[in-house]
């Protein structure tokens, strides 16, 4: 399949399950490439590649959840073609929830489960002040405090000028989007970092309002970006959660 929205590093036409992975703000499909090592034989990994990154670097990034969903839903035939699991980290969790909700709302196949990593429940307001619109230097300082953008990019003026439009657009979505609470008819597994100061315990527990089934919670030693610092552990947990599907 030739489609820039989906990066499928190891196509598996015999797969009986697709794992759709939604990266965090500023993230790209490369985050999930190490997951190919040990990927169960019946699963095909599909990394979502929104404009402004990877092979879509020169395309303007979406700056609203509505625009992101419009593009995703234009490919709903592929998304619902096989049984699927949605995994997202931070903003990616909220995109994955909204996509699952829109599929359910329009009587399409929903994913078998949603794995929400490193995120407050999306119907809760952002508890931090918005910063996507800050002047250049202040915006850079906020990025540094998040510890998610590689130092080599932050300190490279030319690279930062290239990535700033994407980062501002992603954080505009992250700062402003708030979902309508709707309980999905699927299980939700919630992954969180024990040292994540950006996601509070009550914001994790609030995911229960978005599932008609009991949620499960799984902790990792790390801050907001435990998906990177504990990559092998996160991958192992995700594979464990979906191995029997």
Which labels suit this protein?
Thioesterase; Rossmann fold; single chain; seven-stranded mixed β-sheet; alpha/beta; globular; Thioesterase domain-containing protein; 34% helix; AB_hydrolase_fold
Offer a concise description of the structure:
The protein is of the alpha/beta class.
Characterization of this structure:
This is Thioesterase domain-containing protein. InterPro entries: AB_hydrolase_fold, TEII, Thioesterase. Residues 18-234 form the Thioesterase domain. Pfam families: Thioesterase (PF00975). Belongs to the thioesterase family. It is built from nine helices and seven strands, in the order βββααβαβαααβαβαα. α3 (91-105) links the parallel β4 and β5. The relative contact order is 0.16. The mean pLDDT is 94. The chain has a seven-stranded mixed sheet, with helices on both faces. The two termini are 24 Å apart. The chain has a single domain (6-123, 181-242), classed as Alpha/Beta hydrolase fold, catalytic domain (Rossmann fold, 3-Layer(aba) Sandwich), CATH 3.40.50. α1 crosses α3 (91-105). It is of the alpha/beta class.
Please write out the topology.
Blueprint (H helix, E strand, L loop, with lengths): L5 E2 L9 E6 L20 E6 L16 H9 L2 H4 L4 E6 L1 H15 L7 E5 L18 H11 L4 H4 L2 H20 L11 E6 L7 H5 L10 E5 L5 H4 L1 H12 L3
Parallel strand pairs: 2-3, 2-4, 4-5, 5-6, 6-7
Antiparallel strand pairs: 1-3
**Assigned CATH class:** Alpha Beta
Structural class: alpha/beta
Strand content: 5-15%
Principal-axes shape call: globular
Spell out the CATH superfamily: Alpha/Beta hydrolase fold, catalytic domain
Tell me the number of structural domains. Answer: 1
Strand order of the largest sheet: 1-3-2-4-5-6-7
Low-confidence stretches: none
Pfam families: Thioesterase
Organism: Pseudoalteromonas luteoviolacea DSM 6061
Domain Thioesterase: 18-234
Family: Belongs to the thioesterase family.
